[in-house]
TrEMBL record:
Residues forming coiled coils: 38-231
Protein species of origin: Pomatostomus ruficeps
Keyword terms: Coiled coil
Entries under InterPro entries matching the protein: MPHOSPH9
Gene3D superfamilies: 1.10.287.1490
Phylogenetic placement of the source organism: Eukaryota, Metazoa, Chordata, Craniata, Vertebrata
Protein name: MPP9 phase
GO cellular component: centriole
Amino acid sequence: LSVASIEDPVVMSKIRQNLREKHARHIADLRAYYDSEIQSLKQQLESSHRTASNEELKKINQSLADRDWCNLCVLNRCDELDAALNEANARIKALENKNNLLEKQVAEWRERFCAASNSSKALQERLEETRCAHKEKDNTISRLQSRLRELEEAFEKAYKLSDNKNTRLQEESRMFQNLLGEYESLGKEHERVKDTLNTTENKLLDANTEISDLKRTILKLEAQLKQVEHENALKLRH
């Protein structure tokens, strides 16, 4: 038999059934043989009762006793082999149940590992998107800061050139206040983006930790599965 045939539950069930049938036929043949021997000896004893002497009767009785003892030993040995076979079948059934349970656990942990991997990938994509948005916000803030400096310089120049141009100064002051408000709004948005980025990075770390735990659990379950398969092979060879 090949290794694949031995690992097939249907093939193993047929093998055990054939072994049980052969064992039962062997025991039945032994019992029939010894029963016929005993019957033959009894007939010989009955036929020799009339003609045999006392010494011959003693020898025949001793021979019958010896054969009865041998028959009893053989029957006891058959019972022991039958009990051992039943015990081995029960052990093989228990190992098969344990093997099936471990396979289900491995499949379940693999599914959880795939789900965690997909979640980790999604978090990484969201993290990259958040980083890109954060970079764009930083660039916008840098441009606004440059624009603010330019306006400040222009305001200082205008203030030096003319102290009487109040209208123009008020307009520039209003523009300056608007820019300051926009700058503050962008600063708050920048802080919110930073908080979101930190939260996403923490989630990614938690997902990576969970993935590592799942990998270790899968390796442990696969090791237990290999051990059970090794025990199954040893039991089958026994």
